[in-house]
Design goal:
The complex is a heterodimer of chains A (352) and B (242). Chain A is built from 16 helices and no strands. Chain A is an all-alpha fold and 352 residues long. The longest helix of chain A is centred in the first third of the chain and has 35 residues, at 69-103. The mean pLDDT of chain A is 91. Chain B is an alpha/beta fold and 242 residues long. In chain B, a hairpin with a 3-residue loop joins strand 1 and strand 2. The chains are: A mainly alpha (352), B alpha/beta (242). Chains A and B meet through helix 11 and helix 12 of A and helix 2 and strand 6 of B.
């Protein structure tokens, strides 16, 4: 128990530290005291006249409030939404990774199995190539989200109509649908123009750099709500690890648990992928790493994986921001580039 | 009482009616493919019969509340596909799920009764097959330990591929449950073990019930020879039938 407390405490502190770094470090360094002064001003003293003052005479504004207005705007409108996205998306991917691995009783399962990513890819490319951008910057995310929902529903329904046990059947249906959907994506890429292809590629490799308050506030409920509900499923997911029939004998309604896990995963991962693209390996590797430390009990694993997922994605994003160069490295590239070797090392160390 | 009435499942179990009483250990016997496991899963409620019904305390199994049923009826399967490395006592504690509160004193007591206290804190995947089976047995015993009504324990080949010592421990534990008033039904392919530990036996062949009754009556040499398609002398050769 003390080990668990220590792990959570350590993780929480690390996350806090990384968050402060994420807000203050960048092309313009903003000190922590400046950030707190800016936040206090934002919450208590913000008014049209003080903003006008900042624009007319930055020096007078600094004299009066003790921070540089443009610095605060950078923190508030650029770094804060991006940080929130990193935290949410990291937690979401790791959490649904735990859910999928428990549901399929396979430590290699990840949210991609139920078609979230492939469906989103198809939705994204359809939105880019076939639909004129009526909704502006939201066309791609909306298309991707709809694509991922349709793929999940299709796979889920198909898996129910076969004679085989559910988990195995869903895996097979998922493989077939994923292949088909990616073939459709390939076909559309063939017909796309260079600019569309470039947009698609950068989306598909994953990135947090489109973060803005509009998008974060639009996407946050779809991720936050499932994250709050998910830990309630932990105990029942432990029973599911024994096998679906055995879980049933323990009084667990497996069909209900399954429906919830898929619904919540589809919502939160679908949303994360739609806005931030395909960020691989977080959902796979974080549950593994946490199991090595805390064991496989889902009641602790789920919150701990959320914490580590958030830490990992925020660190990856900090790493990207620290790299020199004009165009940002896609974050999906970084997570897979670092994640795959780490995963191999974990596999060699011990089964979990 | 646990009752099967004209129970049919596809062509694997055909029109089986049998009743199982508290305080008796009943062995389901028959050749491979006779329908022992299917009948056991039907009795457990893990499969739904295509015809007929299972009644526990006079009430059809399908109308039981899942939680209430889980507090009274536990099932030990033949094989476990658990690939996650829990500590042994955490698996036993899963038996507390239906009651809704984790009672580690109870977990400890049940583990002690099976002499597997030393496994406390050991990782599941590092245990031997026999130890793993005992951990699961402890789990199902915890599950029905504090049942209000009649307890039902269903075991599917619990000793398959285990050595003599584990066979003794597991069957002895099942016996004891029956002596304490539980309904115990066990699929068992080893007739000499059935003869030694069971009170009653139900013999199946090709999905049909051949005979049910006291174990010594069910397992007579001619019938065994006929059902298992061996010679009379071979059946006697196994030396378990009076």
């Amino acid at each position: 128990m003390r080990k668990v407390m220590r792990a959570f405490l350590g993780g929480g502190l690390l996350l806090l530290l990384l968050s402060i770094v994420a807000l203050s470090v960048g092309p313009v360094d903003v000190s922590l005291s400046e950030i707190t002064r800016g936040a206090t001003w934002e919450l208590t003293e913000r008014s049209a006249s003080s903003i006008a003052l900042a624009q007319e005479s930055p020096e007078a504004f600094y004299e009066r409030y003790g921070f540089v207005y443009t610095h605060w705007v950078i923190v508030r409108d650029v770094r804060l939404p991006r940080m929130l996205w990193a935290l949410l998306v990291g937690a979401v991917l790791a959490c649904s990774g735990v859910g999928m691995q428990s549901l399929f009783r396979n430590p290699l399962a990840d949210p991609g199995l139920i078609g979230v990513s492939a469906g989103a890819s198809l939705g994204a490319i359809v939105a880019l190539v076939c639909v004129p951008s009526v909704l502006g910057a939201l066309t791609l995310p909306l298309g991707a989200f709809m694509g991922s929902m349709l793929a999940v529903i299709f796979i889920y329904k198909m898996a129910h109509n076969t004679e085989q046990p559910w988990a195995g059947s869903l895996l097979l249906v998922g493989v077939a649908v994923n292949a088909f959907v990616l073939a459709c994506v390939g076909g559309l890429i063939y017909f796309s123009q260079d600019a569309q292809l470039r947009d698609y590629t950068f989306w598909a490799l994953g990135s947090l750099n489109k973060a803005s308050w509009d998008k974060v506030s639009l996407s946050a409920p779809f991720m936050l709500l499932p994250l709050v509900i998910f830990p309630w499923l932990g105990g029942r997911l432990n029973a599911v690890l024994l096998g679906e029939e055995q879980a049933g004998y323990l009084g667990v309604n497996v069909a209900t648990v399954r429906r919830w896990v898929i619904l919540l995963s589809a919502s939160m991962v679908g949303c994360a992928v739609a806005f931030c693209g395909i960020i691989g390996f977080v959902g796979l590797i974080v549950p593994h790493a946490v199991r090595l430390v805390l064991g496989p009990d889902n009641r602790r694993l789920i919150p701990a994986a959320m914490l580590l997922g958030a830490i990992l994605l925020l660190s990856a994003d900090l790493g990207i921001r620290a790299l020199p160069g004009g165009v940002e490295m896609p974050i999906g590239v970084v997570t897979a580039f670092v994640g795959a070797p780490v995963f191999l090392i974990l596999l060699r160390r011990q089964p979990c | 009482m646990l009752e099967a009435r004209t129970l049919t499942y596809k062509d694997r179990v055909r029109d089986v009616s049998a009743s199982f009483i508290p305080g008796a250990l009943t062995a389901l016997v028959g050749p491979n493919g006779a329908g022992k496991t299917t009948l056991l899963r039907l009795l457990a409620g893990g499969l739904c019969a295509t015809e007929g019904n299972v009644f526990l305390e006079g009430q059809p199994l399908s109308t039981w509340d899942e939680q209430a049923l889980a507090r009274q009826r536990a099932v030990l399967p033949q094989a476990h596909g658990l690939g996650f490395n829990f500590e042994a006592q955490a698996i036993v504690a899963l038996g507390c799920m239906p009651s809704g509160r984790e009672d580690f004193a109870l977990v400890k007591a049940v583990m002690a009764s099976l002499a597997i206290e030393p496994l406390w804190g050991r990782r599941y995947l590092s245990l031997s097959g026999g130890e793993q089976q005992l951990v699961h047995l402890a789990r199902v015993l915890v599950q029905i330990k504090e049942a209000q009504g009649v307890r039902v324990l269903l075991l599917d080949e619990p000793t398959a591929s285990l050595d003599l010592r584990y066979q003794e421990i597991i069957l002895e534990a099942a016996r004891q449950q029956a002596e304490e008033g539980a309904i115990v039904v066990m699929a068992l392919h080893d007739l000499s073990l059935a003869h030694r530990f069971a009170d009653k036996a139900v013999m199946l062949n090709e999905g049909c019930l051949i005979v049910a009754g006291e174990v010594s009556e069910v397992l007579n040499a001619e019938r065994v020879a006929a059902v298992y398609q061996i010679k009379n002398s071979e059946a006697k050769h196994f030396g378990v039938f009076c």
